[in-house]
Design a protein that fits this description.
globular; alpha/beta; 3 domains; Four Helix Bundle (Hemerythrin (Met), subunit A); two-stranded antiparallel sheet; single chain; 5-stranded mixed sheet; Nucleotidyltransferase, domain 5; 58% helix
Amino acid sequence: MGALFYLGIDVSKNTLAVILLDQKEKIIWSNSSILNTLGGFQKLLDQATKRAAQKSGGEDYVIAAGMESTGVYGELLAYFLYDNNNEGRITPYVLNPAAVRSYSKACLEPNKNDPTDARVIASYLSVAIAKGQVNPWKAPSEEERTLRALSRRREELVRLLTMEKNRLEKLDNMASPSEEVVESVERLIQYLDAEIRQVEEDIDEHIDASPTLKKNAELLRSIPGVGAVSVATVLGEAGDMSRFEGIKQFTAFVGIAPVEYTSGTSVMKRSRISKRGNRWIRHVLYMATMIAVRVNPVLREFYKRLVERGKNKKVALIASMRKLLHLIWGILRNQRMFEPEYGG
C-alpha cells in the first residue's frame, strides 16, 4: 500500500482548517484558512497530494481524509474527494462527531479551535482505522439521496406538527385564549397535515419508480413491526448494504448500543442508547421495535426472554433494536423475505 497519511479537516461555513499527519502523527502540512468552495477543495487536494508525494519519497501513498458529519457544509467536500480520489490515493471518511469529541476528551485536549479540531480528527482517524472502527465513505446514489431528503423532510414536518398540536393544547387550557391565535394554530396544523401526506405520497412514488428501492422496500415490509416510515428511512440513510463489510459495521453506523451507569452500589442511572451513529435510523427503529416486540414473533420471544431473565425493560428494548437491525441486515443482504422459523 505504501506510505499512509491522515488528513484531518475541520469544516465551517466559509473555511476549512486542515492538517496532514504521517503514521507517527508528525505534522506534514497544515492550513487553517482554505475556502470552503470548489476552488478551495482543489487547493486542498493539490497541496495534500504534493506534500504526501514528497514525504513518501517517490513511493506510492494513500491519504485517509477525515471530516465530521456535521451537516451540509461538508457534504460538497465529501463528494469532491470521492470523485477526485487521485487514482485511489485519497480515501474520504465521514466521522461521527460524538466519537471525535469522546476521543478529544480522552486525550485531555484543552483547546477548542479549528486547527486543534483538525488535528484531533486526523489523530482519531488514525486510531479508528487501525482498530477497524470506521469505513471509507461511499457516496450514495442519486435515488438514495432523494429518498433520504424526503424522509428527513417528513420527520421535520412531523416535529413541527407536534409542536403546534402541543401549542393548541396549551391554548385550550387557558382561561381566555385569543381566538385569532387559536385559528392561526389550527390553520397551520391543517397545512402541516396536508404537507406530510404530500411528502409521504412523494416517498411512495419515488420508491415505486426505482426497481431496486421497490424490491428492498418489499423485503423490509415483510418484517412485522417495520412500517413505511422505517422502510424509507433505512433505505435512504443506509443505502446499499454492500457499503458495509458486515453486521458489525452496519450496527456501528446506526449506533445502537446500550449505555449503562453502574459503579459499586451507589451509582445507578437509567440506561440509555448511545448517541453515536445515524440518529435518523435510531429514531424510527426505536419506534418500530416498540411495535415489533408485540407483533413480531421473533422479537416478541426475544424481548420476553430478556425480561424474564431480569433485564431492565429499557435494556431489553435496546437489545431488541439490535436484533431487529440484524434482521434488516440479513434480509437486505440475502434478498429474502422475513421467515420466523429462521429468525429472518
